[in-house]
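Supplementary Methods. Inverse-folding protocol.

Structures were first reduced to a discrete structure-token string of length 153. This string, shown here, constituted the complete conditioning input.
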């Protein structure tokens, strides 16, 4: 049942991107051009998403447990830390250069555009590199904790 609901949610998201025009890089770049010919339509899409998701969260918070999961998966942290700031800057640079973010990029794969295919492959490479970086830093922390524990003992 979880797979079916995930599929349906993905379809709703994809149709929303298509209908709103957010799969068109020119539309997104127009939104980012605040000092030029600014196109506010992406802001409207984001505001509508906030309203819809806020209603969904309000309903979910009132429920004792989720319908399709063993527990709620609320975000574990809300801190603005260095990783968030650096990641946001890098994401913004990529978004501003290409006019695509992950959802629309995946949806645009259907166009078989070489530009989109290269972008998605580069995006995946970046995600894999970050995963390795995170695993490596976790391993270093475990080794450091073990070293400190044995030094204390």
């Amino acid at each position: 049942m979880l797979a079916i609901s995930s599929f349906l949610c993905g379809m709703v998201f994809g149709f929303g991107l298509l209908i709103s025009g957010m799969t068109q890089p020119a539309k997104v770049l127009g939104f980012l051009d605040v000092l030029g010919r600014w196109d506010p339509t992406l802001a409207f899409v984001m505001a509508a998403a906030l309203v819809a998701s806020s209603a969904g969260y309000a309903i979910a918070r009132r429920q004792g447990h989720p319908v399709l999961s063993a527990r709620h998966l609320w975000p574990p942290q809300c801190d603005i830390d260095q990783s968030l700031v650096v990641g946001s800057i890098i994401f913004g640079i990529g978004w501003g250069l290409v006019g695509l973010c992950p959802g629309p990029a995946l949806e645009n794969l259907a166009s078989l555009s070489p530009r989109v295919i290269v972008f998605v492959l580069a995006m995946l490479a970046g995600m894999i590199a970050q995963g390795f970086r995170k695993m490596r830093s976790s391993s270093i922390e475990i080794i450091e904790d073990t070293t400190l524990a044995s030094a204390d003992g």
